[in-house]
Amino acid sequence: xxxxxxxxxxxxxxxxxxxxxxxxxxGGHIAEISTEAPKEAAKETIDGKGMLAAPGLVNTxxxxxxxxxxxxxxxxxxxxxxxxxxxxxxxxxxxxxxxWGTQLGIAEMLRSGTTCxxxxxxxxxxxxxxxxxxxxxxxxxxxLAGVAPTADKALIENKELFTTWNGYDDNRIKVMLGPHxxxxxxxxxxxxxxxxxxxxxxxxxMHLSETKGEVENVIKQTGKTPIAHMNDLGLFDxxxxxxxxxxxxxEDMDIMREKNVRVxxxxxxxxxxxxxxxxxxEMLAKGITVGLGTDGSASNNNADMLEExxxxxxxxxxxxxxxxxxxxxxxxxxxxxxxxxVLGYDDLGVLKSGQRADIxxxxxxxMHWMPRYNDVASLVYAANSSDADTxxxxxxxxxxxxxxxxxxxxxxxxxxxxxxxxxAN
Length: 425
Hints:
Blueprint: E1 2-13, E2 16-26, E3 29-34, E4 42-47, E5 51-55, E6 57-62, H1 78-90, H2 95-111, E7 114-121, H3 124-134, E8 137-144, H4 151-165, H5 168-171, E9 173-179, H6 187-200, E10 204-208, H7 212-222, H8 226-233, E11 240-244, H9 250-258, E12 262-265, H10 267-272, H11 280-285, E13 290-292, H12 305-320, H13 328-335, H14 337-342, E14 359-363, H15 375-381, E15 388-393, E16 396-400, E17 403-404, H16 409-424
Parallel strand pairs: 1-4, 1-5, 6-7, 7-8, 8-9, 10-11, 11-12, 12-13
Antiparallel strand pairs: 1-2, 2-3, 5-14, 14-15, 15-16, 16-17
């Protein structure tokens, strides 16, 4: 018996659309996509009439519990925002608060069509627990800062997180090491992170070259850009996801291509914090793998990946005065299959037989979808995240007709109201 069949649905597979099709799902993977009904009965059937099935969006960089600080401090530059608002607020965090903040972020992501996210934050055992319970896919990193009193403890916690959760549920949860940034992680600490990476076999997720100030300070201290300096330290030899990469040189990009540094591009956060615009078309031209991320919801201020896809498609057109700089298909791929590759999944981000069954059904009956000349262009330039009607992750239905099935929304709203009082006072 088949686990799940989605019937009478239009299916976006690669860059083509299969009309009125059937998607059969078994063991968390897509078994078949066909225009003929499966002969075998299904345990669960979903009617996809009026829907477009697409791969779930992949958020390659966020601090998802920071949704608790949404609109807490806005219209500030990065370091001012961190030092005078965010870091003091984060000093109030405890494990229970992060658990509910993660639940909030997961609810928001599922409702907007994101099925996988990469998170770097604190109290990550609670984040893993929320991921386990809700059924979403995640790559988790414990944020590491070598200048903090908890520097040693953070390394131990990241190792424990890896030991406990990496590979959980057929790699529905994976774990990386999360050194925060060059300005919070001195060289000796980076060397310890690299040594731990070698010891346990974990890859690394780090903010790099996010602002002009960061780059200028590293050059002043070392004579090299952050990318060149981290390369000399050996950080990229372990496998690395580099968040932002806004201010990179041609030489930096050559290093990134050579060492397979995968980039998490966060266009909306970079704009809001006035960090700049990453040279993404130039990276893609060099063969660098680039995915998209929202960053935390205190600097975005939401976890809506469809917004990032649209912004990636339009922002670089304006920067380069070139309407072909990032075509719709390229932007969509960055939000799906390329984002999956950034996070180390080679069987995720496209709907076809053998791929992981992370599927979003978009309601295409709205006026803004008509007359449907090109469904990829509709997703990138016209669709709303609220069009996400049903979400499947690893073959399990987590949201059906806009109802979250693994999250108690009433309890969640009550807990977030309590937490608001902690930060408001």
